[in-house]
Specification:
CATH architecture of the largest domain: Orthogonal Bundle
Helix content: over 70%
CATH class of the largest domain: Mainly Alpha
Distance between the termini: 29 Å
Number of helices: 14
Strand content: under 5%
CATH superfamily of the largest domain: MetI-like
Number of domains: 2
């Protein structure tokens, strides 16, 4: 199908070209990593001389990789639950509260999103080192929660601001308690915000590497830290296989979020 230059205008083609170049810039490294994970060479060589599933087999056969993946999953799951619960309570306070320092408090909660991650990592490392939480599961959860909570607050606050509070008030007038009205009326109505908060919190913890490097110990490493440590020691395609699986999980969860939002709009 040929495009009509006169109808669309030349500037739209410029925007289309810029969009295509940007998408290629973002996607090509991901495609290269995926291709390298199936390459038959024992080194990260592109293009691969042949194709094999050996590196995925080695990945799943190595208990160190599986342990790191399980550690990442446990931390991400705990962070997700805590982030949604704390984000829900905080969002109610920020959206419905009426106090003079509300905007400043909101900005404070969102600070981890704009602060350089390495600065935050150094601060957490120094603090946790003094109180004995560095290299522990608790330290991992707290540090990842600091990063995930802003995304949870943004998602839930946005959903709560779009909810008509008069519906909740009507339920209270009909005899429901304030807590019951929130549980039975408000929470189902903002479920899309809760779902988005959960997904983004999980991904924030699952993919985090900078803070995780400072929090890690020889006996406790997340999957991204394991990838980083292996890259420094050996350029094996097993790293590409692990990275590909990380990317696939992230894409799957993001696609799920998009489908849920599309279903809610329709």
């Amino acid at each position: 199908m040929l495009l009509n230059f006169e109808r669309l205008g030349w500037w739209k083609f410029v925007l289309l070209a810029i969009t295509a170049l940007t998408a290629a810039f973002l996607l090509l490294p991901i495609l290269f990593i995926a291709a390298l994970s199936f390459g038959s060479s024992q080194w990260l060589i592109f293009p691969p001389p042949g194709w094999t599933l050996k590196w995925y087999s080695d990945l799943f056969a190595d208990p160190r990789w599986l342990q790191s993946a399980w550690t990442s999953f446990k931390i991400a799951a705990i962070v997700t639950v805590l982030s949604v619960l704390l984000g829900l309570v905080t969002s109610f306070g920020l959206v419905r509260g009426r106090f003079w320092f509300r905007e400043g408090l909101k900005a404070l909660f969102l600070t981890p999103m704009i602060l350089p991650v390495v600065v935050l990592a150094v601060g957490l490392y120094a603090f946790f080192l003094k109180i004995g939480l560095n290299g522990t599961m608790t330290g991992f959860v707290i540090s990842h929660l600091v990063l995930a909570l802003p995304f949870s607050i943004l998602s839930i606050s946005s959903a709560l601001e779009g909810f008509d509070k008069s519906i909740e008030d009507a339920a209270i007038l009909c005899g429901a308690s304030p807590l019951e009205a929130k549980i039975r009326i408000t929470l189902p109505s903002i479920s899309h915000g809760l779902f988005s908060a959960a997904i983004f919190s999980f991904l924030t913890s699952w993919d985090e590497v900078v803070v995780a490097i400072f929090m890690a110990s020889p006996t406790l490493q997340t999957l991204p830290v394991k990838v980083w440590a292996t890259l420094r020691q050996d350029l094996t395609p097993v790293v590409a296989a692990a990275s590909t699986l990380l990317i696939l999980l992230t894409l799957a969860l993001m696609t799920l979020v998009a489908l849920v939002r599309k279903g809610l709009k329709s």
